[in-house]
Design goal:
The protein has 133 residues and is mostly helical. The chain is built from 4 helices and no strands. It has one domain.
Protein backbone atom coordinates (compact mmCIF):
# COMPACT_ATOMS: atom_id res chain seq x y z
CA UNK A 1 0.00 0.00 0.00
CA UNK A 2 2.90 2.35 0.69
CA UNK A 3 4.24 1.87 -2.84
CA UNK A 4 0.84 2.69 -4.30
CA UNK A 5 0.66 5.84 -2.20
CA UNK A 6 4.14 6.88 -3.29
CA UNK A 7 3.34 6.17 -6.93
CA UNK A 8 0.16 8.21 -6.73
CA UNK A 9 2.10 11.07 -5.15
CA UNK A 10 4.63 10.93 -8.00
CA UNK A 11 1.85 11.11 -10.58
CA UNK A 12 0.16 13.86 -8.59
CA UNK A 13 3.40 15.86 -8.39
CA UNK A 14 3.90 15.58 -12.14
CA UNK A 15 0.30 16.56 -12.88
CA UNK A 16 0.47 19.47 -10.43
CA UNK A 17 3.67 20.74 -12.03
CA UNK A 18 2.09 20.57 -15.50
CA UNK A 19 -1.06 22.37 -14.35
CA UNK A 20 0.89 25.05 -12.46
CA UNK A 21 3.20 25.63 -15.42
CA UNK A 22 0.22 25.95 -17.79
CA UNK A 23 -1.73 28.25 -15.48
CA UNK A 24 1.23 30.58 -14.94
CA UNK A 25 1.81 30.74 -18.69
CA UNK A 26 -1.87 31.49 -19.32
CA UNK A 27 -1.88 34.26 -16.71
CA UNK A 28 1.32 35.69 -18.22
CA UNK A 29 -0.20 35.66 -21.71
CA UNK A 30 -3.37 37.38 -20.54
CA UNK A 31 -1.44 40.00 -18.58
CA UNK A 32 0.94 40.61 -21.46
CA UNK A 33 -1.91 41.04 -23.90
CA UNK A 34 -3.86 43.35 -21.61
CA UNK A 35 -0.78 45.49 -20.92
CA UNK A 36 0.19 45.57 -24.62
CA UNK A 37 3.72 44.55 -23.69
CA UNK A 38 6.44 43.13 -25.88
CA UNK A 39 5.54 39.44 -26.47
CA UNK A 40 9.15 38.28 -26.26
CA UNK A 41 9.80 39.89 -22.90
CA UNK A 42 6.48 38.60 -21.52
CA UNK A 43 7.34 35.10 -22.74
CA UNK A 44 10.77 35.16 -21.09
CA UNK A 45 9.40 36.62 -17.86
CA UNK A 46 6.62 34.06 -17.76
CA UNK A 47 9.15 31.28 -18.38
CA UNK A 48 11.29 32.65 -15.52
CA UNK A 49 8.26 32.54 -13.21
CA UNK A 50 6.57 29.35 -14.39
CA UNK A 51 9.60 27.08 -14.06
CA UNK A 52 10.40 27.55 -10.35
CA UNK A 53 6.76 27.77 -9.30
CA UNK A 54 5.97 24.50 -11.09
CA UNK A 55 9.05 22.76 -9.68
CA UNK A 56 8.38 23.84 -6.11
CA UNK A 57 4.65 23.17 -6.36
CA UNK A 58 5.20 19.67 -7.70
CA UNK A 59 8.03 18.81 -5.31
CA UNK A 60 6.09 19.82 -2.21
CA UNK A 61 3.44 17.19 -2.99
CA UNK A 62 6.00 14.46 -2.40
CA UNK A 63 6.97 13.26 1.10
CA UNK A 64 9.45 15.54 2.85
CA UNK A 65 12.41 13.18 2.45
CA UNK A 66 11.87 13.10 -1.34
CA UNK A 67 11.59 16.84 -1.99
CA UNK A 68 15.08 17.19 -3.43
CA UNK A 69 14.76 14.21 -5.75
CA UNK A 70 11.33 15.37 -6.92
CA UNK A 71 12.59 18.91 -7.56
CA UNK A 72 15.53 17.58 -9.55
CA UNK A 73 13.32 15.23 -11.57
CA UNK A 74 10.78 17.95 -12.35
CA UNK A 75 13.55 20.39 -13.28
CA UNK A 76 15.04 17.87 -15.70
CA UNK A 77 11.63 17.12 -17.20
CA UNK A 78 10.93 20.80 -17.77
CA UNK A 79 14.44 21.20 -19.19
CA UNK A 80 13.81 18.50 -21.80
CA UNK A 81 11.62 20.67 -24.03
CA UNK A 82 14.02 23.61 -24.58
CA UNK A 83 16.96 21.19 -24.78
CA UNK A 84 15.17 19.20 -27.47
CA UNK A 85 14.35 22.35 -29.41
CA UNK A 86 17.95 23.57 -29.12
CA UNK A 87 19.50 20.28 -30.24
CA UNK A 88 17.00 19.69 -33.03
CA UNK A 89 17.63 23.22 -34.30
CA UNK A 90 21.35 22.56 -34.45
CA UNK A 91 20.94 19.16 -36.10
CA UNK A 92 18.47 20.42 -38.70
CA UNK A 93 20.55 23.53 -39.42
CA UNK A 94 17.93 25.96 -38.15
CA UNK A 95 19.71 27.29 -35.09
CA UNK A 96 17.89 30.14 -33.36
CA UNK A 97 19.51 32.18 -30.59
CA UNK A 98 16.08 32.32 -28.91
CA UNK A 99 16.21 28.57 -28.27
CA UNK A 100 19.55 29.00 -26.51
CA UNK A 101 18.04 31.77 -24.36
CA UNK A 102 15.05 29.54 -23.50
CA UNK A 103 17.41 26.76 -22.47
CA UNK A 104 19.41 29.16 -20.32
CA UNK A 105 16.27 30.61 -18.74
CA UNK A 106 14.94 27.21 -17.75
CA UNK A 107 18.37 26.08 -16.57
CA UNK A 108 18.93 29.08 -14.30
CA UNK A 109 15.40 29.42 -12.92
CA UNK A 110 15.16 25.66 -12.38
CA UNK A 111 18.42 25.68 -10.46
CA UNK A 112 17.08 28.46 -8.25
CA UNK A 113 13.96 26.39 -7.51
CA UNK A 114 16.01 23.24 -6.83
CA UNK A 115 18.29 25.15 -4.48
CA UNK A 116 15.29 26.66 -2.65
CA UNK A 117 13.72 23.22 -2.18
CA UNK A 118 17.08 21.82 -1.04
CA UNK A 119 17.57 24.56 1.55
CA UNK A 120 13.97 24.17 2.76
CA UNK A 121 14.34 20.41 3.13
CA UNK A 122 17.55 20.78 5.13
CA UNK A 123 16.10 23.52 7.33
CA UNK A 124 13.10 21.33 8.15
CA UNK A 125 15.44 18.46 9.02
CA UNK A 126 17.53 20.69 11.31
CA UNK A 127 14.43 22.13 12.99
CA UNK A 128 13.00 18.65 13.53
CA UNK A 129 16.22 17.47 15.21
CA UNK A 130 16.34 20.61 17.37
CA UNK A 131 12.75 20.05 18.48
CA UNK A 132 11.39 23.12 16.71
CA UNK A 133 8.38 23.05 14.44
Amino acid sequence: MARLSFGLRCVGALMAAIVIFTVVFAIGAVLGQSLHANPISIYRTTLWLATPIAIMGGALIMPRQNWQAAALALWLLILLVPAWMFVSGIVLGRFRPASLMELGDVLVSGFAAYYAVRVTARARKINRVAGQT
